[in-house]
Model the fold of this input.
Amino acid sequence: MVKSLLYTGPALDDLHEQYAKNGRVDDRAAVRARCDVAIDAPVETVWDVLATPDGWSRIDPAIHDVRLDGAVAPDTSFSWVNGKAKIRSRFAVVRQSEELTWTGVSFGARAVHRHLLRRRADGGTDLEVSESMAGPLLGLFFGEAKLRAALTSWAAGIKRAAEDLHHGAP
Done:
């Protein structure tokens, strides 16, 4: 228990190169969660919502001040604010309409955030969102249940934005 509370995870560059770019979250991280959502919109529409960070406030109004250092591409850095948390991130995997993964750090916690998109036979999209977060004592104040709730809310926001876009809602 104490060992997991003190676990800081791999260095951010290692997390980025060896984990995120290889389709992995940190399975030793104290805080890990995953959620799935079915979206009634084509995978291309879901991708457009997800791969447009400037529009993430449509997914979650708490997100603001998104600043990209280039195109949405592997190794492009970006920063953003979620609520009061400023997050410095870098895209690791950008496979159009298939996967968008980034790594990031906020308040000393290091994270891998993965999105896997799968085209359904009915024309919709299955979205899997997973994340790991590691940092000293992180599990004491931000546990798995909070992360799962945050991911579920994020996925629901992607679903809402993609379905609205697909069905022509403003």
Observations:
- The chain is about 30% helix and 35% strand.
- The first strand starts at residue 31 and ends at 39.
